[in-house]
Structures are given as C-alpha cells and as structure tokens.
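TL;DR need structure tokens for one chain.
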Amino acid sequence: MDGGITVQEKEMFDLTIIGGGPAGLYSTFYAGMRDLKVKLVEYNKELGGKILFYPEKIIWDVGGMPPTTGRKLIDQLVEQATTFNPTICLNEHIVRMVREPDNTYTLINEQGEVHYTRAVMLASGHGIPVMQKLEIEGADRYEVSNLHYTVTQMDIFANKRVLISGGGNAAVDWANELANISKEVVVCHRRNEFGGHEKNVEQMRSVTKIHTPYQIKELHGVGSAIEAVTLAHCDTGEQRQIEVDAVIVNHGMKLDGCFLIEAGLELEEDGFLRVSACMETSQPGIFAAGDVTRHEGKLQLISGAFVEGATAVNGVKQFLDPKADKQAYVSSHNEKFKKKNEQLKQEKQAQLMN
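>> reply
TL;DR here they are.
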C-alpha cells in the first residue's frame, strides 16, 4: 500500500481513533495517559459526534458534572482530549482499512490520503453523524430558511407552527421542548409507534398533534420558505395538508458499515460491532468503543462510552506491549500531571490575588 510513498515519509502512530464523539475524545485523552502516539480522525468539520445535534439540551447524567449543555460538554471534552497534544484530522471520511504484512494498518480516506497506524479504535457511533435528508425534489432550496435537520437554537421556533418528521428519541425530545415555546407542534411518523422513551412519548402525545402513519409527501412554498406540507398516509395514500412556519426532519443518521465488513469485522445482527471484554473486535489490533459496539452489560450513557474508551485503550496498550501495565496510573497520583497541577495551582492563586 505504499502508493509511491517512501518509508521515510510515512508517520506511524501507535493508535488511530476513528470518530470524534464522546468515546473518541475521551479515548484520545486516555491514550495520552498511556504514552501512546495517538491520532484522532473525524468525518465532520467539528468534533462532538452526535452531541452536535442537541447543543442546547441539558445533560444531567455525566458523573461528577453539574447539569450542562451539549455544547459546553463538547468544549470540555475537546479541551481534555488535547491535553497531550494529539494529532487531530477533521473533514476526513475513512473508507478503507488494510492490514499490512507487518500487522500494522493503513487507513485510506475518500480522497485517497492515507494514515499509518499500529492499532485502530473505532468510535464512529451509529454511523457518519450526518442527518438523512428528505428525498423530495427541490427540498434543498428550503434549507436556507425553514427546513431544518437539527435544532441548534430553540428560540428561532418561538411562537411558530412547527412540523417535526421522525419517531426516534431526538424527534420526541425536540417535540416536547418546542411545545413550551412554539405556537403549535405537529409530529408525523411513518410508523404508528415511536422509538423514544415511553414517558417522553406519553408527554409528547399530550402536548402535540400527531399524525401516524404519515410521511411528508410534498413541500409547498414561495421562494425559499416552506408555507405548507402535504402528508400522505403510508398505507392508504390519503393526503392532508397543514400550514407551517418551520419543518424539522429527523430520519436518523447515515450508517457507514461497508468498510467494517470489508475489513472482516464481525457484526451483531443489528449491524453493531461484536467486541471482547477488552473491547477488541474480531480482527487483532482493531478495538472499538461507544455506540458502535454491542456487548453484554452495555450501558447506553455517555459515561459508559468513557469506560469503554479507557478499556479499549488499555487493550491497545497491551496489544502493542504485552508487558505493559493493565491500566494507567490514576491521575491524582500520576507524575504526568505534576507540572500541569502546579500550573493550575499558580493560576488559582493569581485569581485569588486579583
């Protein structure tokens, strides 16, 4: 896989992490604690993963952290991830992994650029974090005004008639949040049942108008703004039109499992990666963490992604060096943080003096 690149020009990393969400970001930090030369590769132009789609939502269930917005959590995770100066690559879509004769890996992106690594961690979540768009001719022209695929600012929907298309957790959560500030919230879903948490779905049913099983058939607008939407019954084809000021579409994210299959990785029936107790996949040297995995005792929390990330990094360390300690020395007694701790103390003293 040299492709004209000489050995001298190659930069080999101990670990390359694919995915810059919570699992990937925390793993990047922890890899630094384990003295690994680490690179993080993210598909989007910004780190944060799925949290980018709910930056204003309040997150309560990260241990030891007061309730905080998704945006603030991302900022804190990125700051932590960069503690040991990792290499970070944005806007790169890895499409192929090749295991070389020397058991290292070559990762190839969509543009044909390559990354060289001794081990890989997959932290790509449910897939490429890009929302599935409406497959309706001309829909893209409304994206500049009132067709949305995520909610970054709740207040822009204040006192408006909002249609939400989708039935997962995000769609249900947005419906409940917007019901507090919008003039009217209408939800359409192509199935009769919603995939959100039961209590949230129950709340949504009490505060919104629901059309099931219906899907968006046509958008009606003047210029770049949608003024009405035609919904079609998924079984009978019966149509109804509703007037709107804004449309939010949440039809899930693109899944990107092709290169996982090509790499020979074993998947569960639902398409997620099968991993061992140390988060190693079916291929030696390829580990995984976060939403991309399924295993007994799986915890679907951000905190769970942190644990899996640290476990995977420890697995990588021992894969590369079987004599290495099973885990990093805790940060409170770790010499790696001695200078950083002194710096923090000095900054705190300076603040007190001011």
